[in-house]
Amino acid sequence: MVTSCKKELVDTNQNPNATQNPQPDYLLTAAIKNTADTYWGVSNNMGAGLLIVQHWAKIQYTDPDRYIFTNTSFQDLWSIGYSKSIVNLNKIISLADAQANPNYKGVALVLRSWVFTLLTDQYGNVPYKQAINIDQYLTPAYDTQRDVYFALLDDLKAAQADLDPNGKAIAGDVVYTNNISAWKKFANSLRLRIALRIADREPAKAQQVLADIQAEGSGYISSNAGMAQMVYLDSPNQNPISNLFDTRDDYRISKTIVDKLFELNDPRLPIYASPTADATPQTYVGIPNGLLVGDASNLGLSKTSKPGAYFRAPHAPAVIMSYAEVLFDQAEAVARGFISGDAAGLYNQAVTASLNQYGITDNTVLNNYLAQASVKYDASNYKKSIGNQKWIALFGEGLEAFAEWRRLDYPQLQPAVAGTLNGKIPVRFIYPGTEQSLNGTSYTAAVANQGPDVLTTKLWFDVN
């Protein structure tokens, strides 16, 4: 009787809206879409990363721009990262093993490594080892940031071994349309990103990673056409930024980046910023970050610039990794002595790739821009040259720009006008409040190891 009841309950407790036999292609599309929406979306990109690095600013509801966050402010990246992205990718890995299709496993490992990089970059110590076996560990322990980065480098090396352009085909890939060779280049590019993330702490390890990449031979993302990105479609699958501006009007471009683009006569200004609705002497008007509500609204919605139409278009891509970033990373690797090459030449290629990314291809414009003293590569301070131009090139990529600003310490930003951190700028996200209530023991141990769970606690990779 007991056995019969158990079987009946199992048969009865089925979700009618969920498939009982998940398919890797559908899971892959869902994992990419969920992560891209979060990475490019409102809560932790527009409402945090882009504000902190002063790409965007708030003209209404300015609390986030003043560093007033709650323990739910950063919940989306955490909850979606773990409960949707990583869960789906883990399932793809198990299905790939069952179906003997290593290419699904390799792609899922690359994407999972990207998700974990986003998590540890922002929060620091995060669950990794036990989080990839969440069925066994409902309250997973946190791993140190160093251990997470090292584990991800191992995962990406394993992914390279799994990915075979001559192997079984995959489906559901909305980044590279199932092109395994492109995934191999992206995997190496992500390894390069993480190697530089640890470079100030673990230079020998970083250099070994780059030697392994060289020996592997697939190379890096090598053109704007090969960058990792997800191109959005029409509503309801439009770009999250487009979706926000359909109903709200509380964001403007930051005065910090507008001033810098004016100073450099940067041809990306009319792409990054929209002309003001009412005529103004400068056409493009940014607003200072972190104003009080009244001071911000007094500037006028029609006399300040929204982010550019390019970024507010329904089909605008969520850029996961650009060709320009990869070139900047290679320039830095040369400057650090990790690999051989021409740092200045790679830097110039990176700036050019960023301009080309937005359709700026006129050689006279490109050469005049690179010839400016304030743009030329400074071998005596590579972090300044690369940091300033990378910050411009990463416009829109709030989480990655936030990580690189902390790592390179350029540009040298001023805190929000009416900021609440005693003249400091946030250097991490605080953990979601749900971790204290649902995973309290692990949370407490992580905070004891890393430092107070506040916006100003520096993470392991952020050494200066």
From TrEMBL:
Gene3D superfamilies the UniProt entry points to: 1.25.40.390
UniProt feature, compositional bias: Basic and acidic residues: 1-10
Compositional bias (Low complexity): 12-23
Region Disordered, annotated ranges: 1-23
Name of the protein in its database record: Starch-binding associating with outer membrane
Species for this entry: Mucilaginibacter polytrichastri
Lineage of the species this protein comes from: Bacteria, Pseudomonadati, Bacteroidota, Sphingobacteriia, Sphingobacteriales
